[in-house]
Amino acid sequence: MRNRVATMGLIAEVQSPVIINCAEGDWNLDVYRAALEAGCHVIDLGSDIPTTEKQIAMSPDFEKRNLTAITGCGSTPGINNVTLNYAIQNFDSVETIEAGFAWSSDPKEFVVPFSMQSIIEEFTDPAPVIEEGTWIDKVPLETVVERQFREIGEQKCFLVRHPETFTFFFYQKDKGVKNVRFYAGFPSHSFHAIRSYINDNTAKERAVYVSGRGQVELSLLTRVLQEMNPPPPGYTEKENLWVAIEGKKDGKPKRDLIECIVPTLPGWEDAGCNIDTGFPASIIGQMILSGVITERGSFAPEPVVPPEPFFDELAKRHMKIYINAEAVN
C-alpha cells in the first residue's frame, strides 16, 4: 500500500468506485493518496490524531476531484461520531464531551480482539485530551477508574489516544466545547490478559513476548494469539459505545448520554461485538455509492453521515441507539 503506483493499479483492476480501507491506521494516508490519484471515493476505520489532521486537510484536493473521503467509519471512531452529531443539535452550548467503549463477554475468558496492535498502542501511547481548550497528554494506565455501563456492568476504564478527541473539538468549536476525553473500557479478565503482554519496552520495540512463541511483532500479534486462543464454544460479547455531552439548552444545564448497544449476532460468533467495526464501514460505503452522502471533500463522519438513515441500518443489524436510556432506532 505504500507503493502508490501498485495500489493504483490494483484499484484500476478491481474497478470499485468506493474503497473501504480496513488496514491498520499506519497505512491510511498512503491509501488516501492512491485513491485520490485513482479517482475513487475512500473510507477507513480511523487513524491517529496527526494522520487524521492530514487526511482532513486533503479536503480541497478531494473536492476538486468530486470525491468523498471519510476517515473513522468503524465503531469508534464511526458510530460514536454520528451519535454525537445527532444529539449535539439539542444543545445551545457544550462544555464537555466524553466518549468511549466498554464491553464484556460470556464466559469471562480472554479472546483476542480485532487488533492487538491498536489496543496495545492504546494501553501504552500517551493519551491526548483537551482540558479547558488546551491539549494535555495523559499516561493511560495512570488514569484507570471503575465505571458502570448499561448492559455491560462494571469495567476498568482509562484515557486513551483516539482521533475523536481531535474531530469532536474540530467540528464542535462553534458550540464552545472546552473539554474532550476518550476512554477505553475492558472487563477485568481481558484487561489483565492484555497487560500481561506489555512491558516497559513494548512501545519502543514494537513487539511483545508470547509464551511458547517468543518475541512477536505487534503487527503479527493478533494472528498469533488467535491461533493460540480460539473462542470457547458458545462465546458471546456485548459492547456499549457511548458519548456523554454536558452543556446548556435555553440557559439551563443539560446532560445527554448516547449509547449504542452491540450484541454478538448468530452466525457471526467469531466476530464477537466487532461487528460494529465492519458493518458501519459497509453502511457508509453504500451511502456514498447510492448518493445518500453527497458531500465532496475529506471529513470525519460527524458532518457528512446522516444520522437517521444510518441508525435505521444499524437497527437492521441489531445495533440499538439510546439517548438517556430511551430508544432512538
Comma- or semicolon-separated keywords:
single chain; 329 residues; Dihydrodipicolinate Reductase, domain 2
Explain the overall architecture.
The chain has a domain at 79-272 and 320-327: Dihydrodipicolinate Reductase, domain 2 (2-Layer Sandwich). It is built from twelve helices and 16 strands. It has helices spanning 4-14, 28-38, 49-57, 59-64, 79-88, 116-124, 164-171, 188-196, 202-205, 218-228, 275-290, 307-316; strands spanning 18-21, 41-44, 68-70, 93-106, 127-131, 134-138, 145-149, 153-159, 179-186, 207-210, 214-217, 236-249, 252-263, 297-299, 320-323, 326-327. The chain has an eight-stranded mixed beta sheet with strand order 7-8-9-4-12-13-15-16. Helix 1 (4-14) crosses helix 2. It is globular, with a radius of gyration of 19 Å.
CATH architecture of the domain at 79-272 and 320-327: 2-Layer Sandwich
| CATH class descriptor of the domain at 79-272 and 320-327 | Alpha Beta
Query: Would you tell me the overall average pLDDT?
Result: 92
Indicate the percent of residues in helices.
25-40%
Give the uncertain stretches in residue-range form.
Answer: none
The CATH topology label of the domain at 79-272 and 320-327 is Dihydrodipicolinate Reductase, domain 2
Distance between the termini: 38 Å
Helix segment tally = 12
- CATH-wise, what's the superfamily of the domain at 79-272 and 320-327? Dihydrodipicolinate Reductase, domain 2
How would you write the strand order of the largest sheet?
7-8-9-4-12-13-15-16
**Over all CA atoms, what is the radius of gyration?**
19 Å
Could you tell me the number of beta strands?
16
